[in-house]
Fold this protein.
Amino acid sequence: MAAIQAPENPEENPRVKAVFDDIRATRGSDFVNNIWRYLAFDPALLERTWAEVKEVMATPSALDPLTKEMLYLAVSIINNCEYCVHSHSAGARAKGMTPEMHGELLSIVSLAAKTNHLSNALQVPVDDVFKIPDV
Amino acid sequence: MAAIQAPENPEENPRVKAVFDDIRATRGSDFVNNIWRYLAFDPALLERTWAEVKEVMATPSALDPLTKEMLYLAVSIINNCEYCVHSHSAGARAKGMTPEMHGELLSIVSLAAKTNHLSNALQVPVDDVFKIPDV
Amino acid sequence: MAAIQAPENPEENPRVKAVFDDIRATRGSDFVNNIWRYLAFDPALLERTWAEVKEVMATPSALDPLTKEMLYLAVSIINNCEYCVHSHSAGARAKGMTPEMHGELLSIVSLAAKTNHLSNALQVPVDDVFKIPDV
Amino acid sequence: MAAIQAPENPEENPRVKAVFDDIRATRGSDFVNNIWRYLAFDPALLERTWAEVKEVMATPSALDPLTKEMLYLAVSIINNCEYCVHSHSAGARAKGMTPEMHGELLSIVSLAAKTNHLSNALQVPVDDVFKIPDV
Amino acid sequence: MAAIQAPENPEENPRVKAVFDDIRATRGSDFVNNIWRYLAFDPALLERTWAEVKEVMATPSALDPLTKEMLYLAVSIINNCEYCVHSHSAGARAKGMTPEMHGELLSIVSLAAKTNHLSNALQVPVDDVFKIPDV
Amino acid sequence: MAAIQAPENPEENPRVKAVFDDIRATRGSDFVNNIWRYLAFDPALLERTWAEVKEVMATPSALDPLTKEMLYLAVSIINNCEYCVHSHSAGARAKGMTPEMHGELLSIVSLAAKTNHLSNALQVPVDDVFKIPDV
């Protein structure tokens, strides 16, 4: 159950259609998932969001696609985004994440959350060796 | 400024000394950073935390050490742990993270935070293709 | 599915009835939404919470009712409260939030989340011009 | 370095003076800590906040004062409030929290954070036995 | 709807069976709740998580079992873990949390969240009396 | 103390210079604050972030500039971004936020955090009247 009414025929709006066409072309698939169908209620937000996703996630770069998708999933878990946990778990699997890697990702995410809170609870002072001088 | 008084001579406690010795041996370095010096106030918590860090982060596994460290850093950013952001930025650099990779990591983390909140704001329903049947 | 059993006939308790009567009178409506029906399990908590909502949100003040409701919605999105996202999206619409304003609110909330995490990731030092001397 | 200018002589405002007097009387101490000195910039917010703290934390109730203070500290850790971690660590120590109890509190908080994120990552369905029927 | 496929017959794996047997023995009950059934997809993660839960939560210690469970619940609320809120509300009730105590816990958790955010919004400087010198 | 080394002469890079020039022109001021000086380590991230800030925050739209800035500040408080709380408190003051409005903003943010956590703690079911049918 969504918190807004998604447009029923989003592609009647040419700005939306252009984005959906680019999603399909970029992914080589006819499927446009729900986040884009709901963002279509605001074409400018849809355009801006897709442009950023395409540039950051779908352009060859220093990090490989699986690492990028796993980083996305790790953040989605910590932010507790139900939709994103589902879509990026599926996305990482599609890019080659094995159950073993998934288990490791979860081990790291939950360990990091643990030591993050321990550090915050103790207000541990930063070691001098980690300090970078301000400009 | 910490929220507890760290023990002044932590290695007088043999349980603490054993952990610190293992940290030094595992890392091949004499340096024991502050999080361990503060956790030493509770030897059982220190032992448990180090054992988990060693097993998850310092044991060869399906994910390479740099990917693991970047996942740890991504979580630390979202949880806003100042100490951890400093220590794991340094840790990732030591394992080979270039400025270009660091920039990409930040691009992904901040983009994910953005779409996480958009999905939560819209309460986007999960697409059927992402659904995994319960046991 | 709630985590507590809400009272079946909450208004049998006169303290609860007094709060519900005031909610109806303040809003000019017979409808009492679920958060109040569940909080009724602890009349003191119900009274305190409603008194604060009434004072902060339903009393004429420097900020107009729509701005106040949009601020409430922005916080609810970041805290990922499903119930609150639904109720305050509806509340903001009832107070005049157009789809265009809703899209802007989401653009701001998601952009802020993005730059918040970038600042935290970089641990950007506060500029001198922003500093306010301590008393 | 604060984000607002605290009033230099807050007790010149009689509403602020009344709150500060009540803080001193309730605690049997002349010391008024900074959170109250900064909240004094908005007397209504100061009054409301102190009234709630007094009712919830300083009134005899089903939970003993140490348990209440430790719950407050646990929340402050997860919300990463630097000021609150310091003040409520001190507060809990003043109410009898030993280093051993502090270590246990940290063990529980960090373990809970870990399993919270594991559950969210897996989107574990709620067991039937935990389900409470809606009214 | 989970984000992974839980193993259908988890106890065919002897490492999983050993953990489930220990859960049943420790709790004196045949019931193994879903978090363990889903974590079974990664036996090492399952073993590590259960060992920590058993040591921290099920071993007699300085804090009584009810206080420990309420601390766990408080963290789960702030981290907004739906599964954990249900399971630890039930767990705390089973250990003796009355509705009155539950109401108090909620009063404290929500008050703490409120003052945490006020402190962060004002960036209140830590009082000298709360400061503990670094080692 | 930052977590990266900001470039010493960022405007030697023409992409960075173009962004800084546009920041100065858009704001009618010579001052470029630190977030931009640190983001300059990754020109693509700098360009993308500034372009979005300019489009969302500095372009006339349905919401007035003060409302937009206050929404930004509210999110920054909840995400506990120290840098952002300072810069956007200053920004909102520059756009006309009075101390009275600031106090109201804080009252709303902290009240919302409180009821968000109460709703999550109770797992309050969404009222039918708030439900919007899926497409």
About this structure: The interface with chain A takes residues 1-8, 37, 44, 48, 52, 55, 126, 131-135 of chain F (CB under 8 Å).
